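Translate structure to sequence.
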């Protein structure tokens, strides 16, 4: 059951880290989660995977139900907290999302995605200097994290630090085996209307 649940989460996250098409990955994720829950109906990670799929498909009520079930089963699970915080962010519940990601960071302070999500939330709440401090600390601790670099791109663009955004875009592209020049040009296009 745990293997199917881990596969479910890997499938749903695959498009975020690669060029894999989203809809087939989501279908595979839901199938793997279904298989996991058939073997163990109380497996939090399977509900987390479902919640991510439903969030990405904008099925808000289903996502909320899945994440709440995961957290009811495992209230101290940092991954469930992180993904629930990202869901809350997606539906515009920024303060609750920040509280949830802070709980996730307390539970797992070394996970770079938590720090990156926290930076994005601080930025959305217009705590610009706190967001900058958070993303820079996260990047220092996780120099090879693709998600962390992508969050830095967004942070730097929002703060009009385009040279820093371009540098992060190039780093993220190299880490993701993509063409850094293409991303560099994209950021340059954003910064130079």
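Result:
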């Amino acid at each position: 059951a745990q293997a199917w649940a881990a596969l479910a989460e890997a499938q749903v996250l695959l498009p975020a880290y690669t060029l894999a098409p989203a809809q087939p990955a989501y279908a595979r994720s839901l199938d793997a989660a279904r298989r996991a829950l058939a073997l163990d109906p109380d497996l939090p990670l399977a509900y987390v995977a479902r919640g991510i799929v439903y969030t990405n498909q904008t099925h808000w009520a289903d996502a909320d139900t899945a994440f709440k079930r995961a957290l009811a089963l495992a209230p101290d699970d940092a991954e469930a907290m992180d993904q629930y915080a990202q869901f809350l962010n997606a539906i515009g519940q920024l303060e609750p999302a920040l509280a949830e990601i802070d709980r996730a960071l307390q539970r797992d302070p070394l996970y770079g995605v938590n720090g990156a999500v926290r930076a994005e939330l601080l930025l959305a709440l217009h705590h610009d200097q706190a967001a900058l401090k958070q993303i820079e600390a996260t990047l220092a601790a996780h120099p090879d994290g693709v998600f962390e670099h992508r969050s830095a791109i967004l942070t730097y663009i929002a703060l009009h630090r385009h040279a820093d955004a371009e540098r992060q875009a190039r780093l993220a592209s190299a880490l993701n085996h993509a063409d850094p020049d293409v991303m560099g040009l994209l950021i340059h296009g954003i910064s130079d209307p």
